[in-house]
Automatic annotation (TrEMBL):
Residues 195-247 form the HAMP domain. Gene3D superfamilies: 1.10.287.130, Histidine kinase-like ATPase, C-terminal domain. It is found in: Membrane. This is histidine kinase.
Amino acid sequence: MTPAPRRLGSLRGQLLRWLLIPLAVLVAINAVSVYRNALDAADLAYDRSLLASTRALAERVSIVNGRVVADVPYVALDSFETDTLGRLYYKVTGINGEFVSGYDDLPPVPAKAKRSDIYPALVRFYHASYRGTPVRIAALLQPVYDDSMRGIALIQVGESLDARYDLSRKILLDTLWRQAALVLAVAFLSWFAVRFVLRPLMRLTEDVASRAPTDLAGFDAALVHREVRPLVHAMNGYMDRLHALIGGQRRFIADASHQLRTPLTVLKTQAELALRASDPAAMREIVEGIARTTDATVHLANRLLTMARAEHGVAEGQLVSVSLSDTARQVGMALAMAAVGKDIDLSLEAEQDVLVTGNALLLHELLANLLDNAIRYTPAGGRVALRVLAAGDGAVLEVEDSGIGIAAGERERVFAPFYRAPGAQQVNGTGAGLGLTIVRDIAALHGARILLDDNEHGGLTVRVYFPA
């Protein structure tokens, strides 16, 4: 069982989703990138401030009486303990690793901590935990010397990360707020933009909805966007085909009513005469006339229906591979008795199987009309030949007779509905004038072309060329 097609939603909604969802993803990626860059910039700024505090402390480290001392005033100690940006801790270690001043339990420098290349100083930055609080520590190697000794002292200054965390949260919230405002602004503008862009399509929808059922005029493709114009052209093409179909139906109804009116009037007159006739012989003659008129009417009705099928497409089935040779044999067998009745030599030349793509019923009608015309307009004792030939990738159907032929000046007009050449009217006064019209319509439906030509027997040769 074929699953039901998924119902499409709003075009405006789909456009907005395809615009805003990728935009939101890109904005989120951008927000993360901006946030990380801001954190890196904040870390750089705080590390620079931390290094400045470390250098300020290093300037107060010296050698006195052969010992490393740190001359840190009370006010400086107070500022190191509690800074406006967070809590600060420091430690000074002497040349030989001895504790000099500060917080002796400050975490040591990890072995994997690398020297910073950003500043022209022997400083390393690292993260640690001190007294349950995460801290960032700057470790500076400071040369110290006097006349008696020289060496390298280690000055460590740590800072709690509270200020950095506060700044990070502020940067994050500010970034998210700005990005959210940007997304909302884009969504608002996109909604109006999509609404504005779809306005011509909405007008086209209103134009289609307000059309009268009988109004089959085309729509102006210039009033819509370039991407929608193929749809408008397709709609106009469909309207043209629908107009042609309705016009064909109207012509068929008009032609059928016009052509059937005369034989029906004759039938009614003959029936009234038969009702008033008292002589059995006269009544029989009238009834025979009724039978002939009825046969002619049935023939006309069948031709009209065949023409309607040919004009309005392949209603009886899809296009398939059809053997022209087999179809010719079937038609020849069906009309053989009519040829025998007129002592006509009917021959079929279809030695090989020639295939074409088409509708089997309509191709049968095409062959039947051509062969019926050839037998009907060929005098007694004449000849009719039916040939099916292969021509490259295509096929050729030939019907050759020794009949009255068609004058060169009449060969275009004989394809018009109900038109009959003067010679045809003299030979057969009851014809409908639809045979070649049906042949033309069926040939056009199959992409074939027709050629009428004289032959050596003085009659007519009809060739139908079928494409590959």
